[in-house]
Specification:
It contains 2 helices and 4 strands, in the order βαββαβ. With about 100 residues, the chain is an alpha+beta fold. The chain has one domain: Alpha-Beta Plaits (2-Layer Sandwich). InterPro entries: DUF503, TT1725-like_sf.
């Protein structure tokens, strides 16, 4: 079996005053999460709203529990390592 999980994570960075500043945060977040967890990360919504960040994170494994744990660890990692507030999270896991 193959399990693919996607987490859609909405973040708020109240202190951000420009898109340039937001892009810097998004690039840092993407790079660090990809390196730490070996997953795919993309900014997917609110591209032109400077205090709102929405990213999608995708993980694949042959074990459902591994995908779930990885996505939850990523949420914890973002909360602990970035000056952002998680305002919404949505996790979907599919079996193939």
């Amino acid at each position: 079996m193959i399990y693919a999980g996607v987490a859609r994570i909405g973040l708020r960075a109240a202190y951000v005053r420009s898109l340039k500043e937001k892009r810097s945060i998004v690039l840092s977040l993407k790079t660090k999460v990809q390196h730490q967890f070996k997953v795919a990360v993309a900014e997917v919504e609110d591209l032109n709203q400077h205090q709102s960040i929405v990213v999608a994170v995708a993980a694949v494994s042959n074990e459902r529990q591994r995908v779930e744990e990885t996505l939850h660890h990523i949420l914890d990692y973002i909360q602990d390592n970035f000056d952002v507030e998680i305002v919404r999270e949505e996790i979907n896991i599919e079996q193939f």
